[in-house]
UniProtKB/TrEMBL annotation, chain A:
Pfam families: ABC2_membrane (PF01061). It is a multi-pass membrane protein. Residues 1-24 are annotated as: Disordered. Its main location: membrane. The chain crosses the membrane at residues 62-83, 95-120, 141-166, 186-210, 222-240, 282-303. This is ABC-2 type transport system permease protein. Signal peptide: none annotated. Belongs to the ABC-2 integral membrane protein family. Residues 46-274 form the ABC-2 type transporter transmembrane domain.
UniProtKB/TrEMBL annotation, chain B:
The keyword Amino-acid biosynthesis does not apply. Belongs to the ABC transporter superfamily. Pfam families: ABC_tran. SMART domains: AAA (SM00382). CDD domains: ABC_KpsT_Wzt. This is ABC-2 type transport system ATP-binding protein.
Length: 314, 273
């Protein structure tokens, strides 16, 4: 959109002729950063569009966006009931565990799935209006954040009901052999920077997957194919104490690699642990921090090289 | 100062889903850009070696056959397509009006659509709120503005879109053909607004097949043929070469009157375009 003159004119200008000098190249880091900056600055546009998407989805339904909350409540309650019995866990602690897990999972998988379609579904706009790509990525992340906040209502209700159980120091999620948890206290505030970290990572994931998917249309399919696998591999409906309790002599042994090598687990844990008063471990933050840095570096490089190609590819 | 500089620019489209083999044979035809065959993915060279410069006050008409690259050139000038080879530089806020339906949402009300469309064209919410009444008055849609867009007829949609588009203050206005599918009474009103809009804008590039609109809005012209510039110059000169006859000879009486020129056709013969 706005680019600044870098022309050095040393020849007399003919009317109608293009002035001499080098014009700025499409492929430069400056153009990539300009896109990000201009995209963030168009806050009115992407926030409006994000809201519009939510309203659109529930238009003409009586309860509207409240359906987001209701469907989350039903799913969390049913799964919580079933799995707490399967794993002999106390429903008072297992239901909050599963609820926060599901809410966060929806945000994370949303970044992957909706992110890979972010530019494809905005094809018309991209081909008709010279807006920064970041606008469409922010629209997607903003929409997912709105969904997240709607789902938080379920968390608040469950917290109100089960607060005594969660606030008790030393509570365990499963009845036998569970890891004693510190219980809810002031460290719950760590959930706020954690959500910031999720959103920051969500943006690069959406940008990166969005650009890749416009060129390689198999990417959204791959993500759809592995998403349910990822759901069951991540400790959401099960907890890591269950695995550890099955093998008490080794504390799980090699089996802990099943979740430690899963990035989604770390992103989930930085926000779930504070929200239900579980043990907070710094190593999750290191993993998330590493992903933030490496992910953004990769995204900036991809933005530099392929940002201007997206309108050709969609 | 607003300006667009494009130098030796190429726009090459990769066509990923086309069967490479069948397109390997070089396609020769009068319609469309050249289809390159040297790489694995077939490429359509929609624009080749375009060099042009647009400054404040320029009113450029784009003419050429279907598929000659007019719309692609407008997209290049707006910054939607960055040249695959060559370079371009755009200084100033561009308001591209290519398709009146774009950014319009069927499920939301006319008012909300005015808002969204305005935001897309680079206006702020506050600026649009000031314009809403003016747009409502122009479109004559009245209470329909509260209704979702899917209740609108095609003509009503065009009215709404034209209303929003002509209410903005663009620095560089890029218009594509196809604005004009409304009833004639409304068209006269829209025409005035369009002329006002062009007067307000810093620079204009207008692609059209309608000589009369071109004569009314533009001063110079560029003739595109198979993706490159065939001729450029004053509007009359280029149109004469393109159509093979002087555009003023076949102009309608009513339009001639509006343009303030002598018409050679008798009064009442209507439009020719």
């Amino acid at each position: 959109m706005h680019t600044i003159s870098t022309l050095t004119s040393d020849q007399p200008e003919e009317p109608g002729a293009v002035p001499p000098g080098r014009l700025p190249a499409s492929r430069s880091f400056r153009r990539a950063f300009d896109d990000l900056r201009a995209g963030v600055a168009a806050r009115e546009l992407w926030s409006h569009l994000g809201w519009q998407d939510i309203k659109q989805r529930y238009r003409r339904s009586v309860l509207g966006p409240l359906w987001i909350t209701i469907s989350m409540a039903v799913t969390a309650f049913a799964l919580g009931l079933l799995y707490s019995q399967l794993f002999q866990a106390d429903i008072a602690t297992f239901l909050p565990y599963i609820t926060v897990g599901l809410i966060t999972w929806h945000f994370l998988i949303g970044c992957l799935q909706e992110g890979s379609n972010a530019f494809i579904e905005n094809e018309d706009m991209i081909k008709h209006l010279p807006a920064p790509l970041t606008v469409y990525a922010l629209r997607t992340v903003w929409r997912l954040m709105i969904m997240f906040v709607h789902n938080l209502i379920v968390y608040v209700v469950i917290l109100a009901i089960f607060f005594p159980a969660l606030a008790q120091p030393g509570y365990t999620i499963i009845e036998e052999g569970g890891i004693p948890q510190p219980g809810l206290n002031v460290t719950a505030l760590m959930a706020v920077p954690a959500f910031g970290a999720l959103a920051l990572n969500g943006l690069w994931v959406v940008l990166l997957l969005g650009i890749t998917s416009t060129r390689f249309r198999d990417v959204p399919q791959v993500i759809a194919a592995v998403s349910s696998l990822l759901f069951f591999m991540t400790p959401i409906v099960w907890s890591i104490d269950i695995l550890a309790a099955k093998f008490p002599e080794t504390g799980g042994g090699w089996r802990q690699y099943l979740y430690e090598f899963n990035p989604v687990y770390h992103f989930l844990e930085i926000i779930r642990a504070p929200m239900i008063g579980n043990v907070q471990s710094l190593h999750h933050w290191f993993v998330v921090g590493g992903f933030t840095v490496v992910g953004w570096l990769l995204t900036v490089v991809v933005m530099r090289n392929y940002r201007s190609r997206v309108s050709y590819w969609v | 100062m607003v300006s667009i500089d494009v130098r030796n620019a190429y726009v090459d489209f990769p066509i990923f889903d086309a069967k490479t083999r069948s397109l390997k044979k070089k396609v020769l035809g009068k319609v469309g850009g050249k289809i390159g065959t040297d790489s694995k993915v077939p490429i359509i060279e929609a624009l080749q070696d375009i060099t042009m410069s647009i400054h404040e006050g320029d009113r450029v008409g784009l003419v050429g056959h279907n598929g000659s690259g007019k719309s692609t050139l407008l997209r290049l000038l707006s910054g939607i397509y960055e040249p695959t080879r060559g370079s371009s530089r755009i200084v100033g806020r561009v308001a591209p009006v290519f398709d009146l339906g774009i950014g319009m949402d069927n499920e939301i009300s006319g008012y909300e659509n005015i808002m969204i469309r305005g935001l897309y064209l680079g206006m702020t919410r506050k600026q649009m709120q000031k314009r809403v009444d003016d747009i409502a008055e122009f479109t004559e849609l009245g209470n329909y503005l509260q209704m979702p867009l899917r209740a609108y007829s095609t003509g009503m949609r065009v009215r709404l879109a034209l209303g929003v588009v002509t209410s903005i203050n663009p620095e560089i206005l890029l218009l594509d053909e196809g604005i004009g599918a409304v009833d004639s009474a409304f068209m006269n009103k829209a025409r005035n607004r369009l002329v006002d809009l062009v007067k307000r804008s810093g620079a204009l590039v207008f692609a059209s097949h309608q000589d009369e609109l071109l004569l009314e809005l533009c001063t110079s012209a560029v003739w595109l043929d198979e993706g490159h510039v065939r001729q450029r110059g004053s509007l009359r000169e280029v149109l004469t070469a393109y159509k093979g006859k002087d555009p003023y000879e076949s102009i309608g009486a009513e339009a001639a009157k509006r343009l303030g020129i002598e018409s050679s056709t008798p009064v009442g013969s209507g439009y020719t375009s």
